[in-house]
Amino acid sequence: MNNTNLWDKCLESFCDNLSEKQMKTWIHPLEASCNSDTLSVIAPNKFIKDTVESDFIELIRETVLIKSNNEVSIVKLSLPEVKATARITPKIKSSSIKSSLNADLNFENFVEGKSNQLAKAACMSVVKELGQYNPLYIYGGVGLGKTHLLHSIGNEILKQDKRKRVVYLHSEKFVQNMITAIRTNKIEEFKDFYRSVDALLLDDIQFFANKEKSQEEFFHTFNTLFEYKKQVVLTSDKYPKEIAGLEERIKSRLVWGMSVTIDPPDLETRVAILHGKAEAVNQKIPDDVAYYLAKNVYSNVRELEGSLRRVLATAHFKRAPVTLAFTKETLKDLISLQERLMTIEQIQKTVAAYYNVRVSDLLSAKRDRKITLPRHIAMSIAKQLTSHSLPTIGDAFGGRDHTTVLHACKKVKALKLASASVDQDCQNILHTLNN
Ligand code: ADP
Ligand code: MG
Question: Which residue from 235, 299, 301, 425 puts its CA 20 to 30 A from 392's CA?
Answer without folding.
Answer: 425
